[in-house]
Amino acid sequence: MIEPLAASRLRQSLNSRIRAEASRRGVTADDIRQQYVFALLTKRLFADDMDDWLLLGGNALLIRTRGGRFTRDVDLARTHGWSDVQELRDELRSALSRSLDSDPFRLEIVKVSPHSEPDGYGYGALTAKADIRVLLGVAEFGRFSIDITTRRHVSGPIDRISPTPIIDHETIADLPDVPTVPVENHLADKICALYELHGKTRTASTRYRDLADIVRIVAHLDFDAARLSEMLDHESRRRRIPQPTAIVSPSPAWEQAYPRQAREFAEFPTEFHSLDASLDAAAACLDEVLNGSRSKGRWDHASAQWRG
Asked: 254 and 122, same structural domain?
């Protein structure tokens, strides 16, 4: 274990760099700290260059776009199921307890809880939640949770993303590639979620972050039209909704609610805070795929146009 004086000095050094990066980005120091802790997880979990685990959700988008929101609940998919929670705990402990020369942190499993419920959309998967704390010496440095499922959301090859360290520090200088879902899967999920109705009252979506994430994807990432069209068909059938044909407001309530929410989204450009601005940015790219007029080609985010 690291000596107390060395741990204190490292903590002070990290806190200083975390505060400086938070100030530069205009976010809270806790946001940056959580991303640093997330990097410590990826160092251990993906160190063997294996695809036993797959990153899902908002943090997969975060490492792609190198900015935006970090979610404290890390979504991971396991390639195979588990017979009981102890098996899952043992596998996690083995991965997270790796001894690394590049950092002195210890990742400790607080608990693993099963949450196995039937999936109404046909994915029927085991699920569990693991609470993890990160120790520097004897003191806690951070804490996060992992939502685990066997549902991979992927057909075909996965993507391997090279993450950019959130701060310049030797403890996270050499991060492994992170396996994650293709961007087309992620985008189709976000688009269909906008137009899914919920409950007996068929209430429209209030997932305002989904539209912001779509705007981030269009602004920062390239993707394939044919692959996106395929995944939109798959995702709309999975959710049992009509396939969307245009990017429009999910409900009139979004006109006032979305700008309020958008102002709070981490590192979300001010020019997209109005509902119309976000809808227009997304529609300019996606409508021709949604309405079927484009079935091939590749979106070039740098020039904001389709090619091919």
From this structure: no
Question: What's the domain count of the chain?
Answer: 2
pTM of the model: 0.85
pLDDT at position 122 = 46
Which residue's entry shows tokens 């809808």? 279
The per-residue pLDDT for range 8-33, each reduced to its tens digit, is 999 999 999 999 999 998 889 999 99
Distance CA(275)–CA(166), nearest Å, equals 30
Domain assignment of residue 12, given as a range: 4-180
Is 202 found in the same domain as 133? no
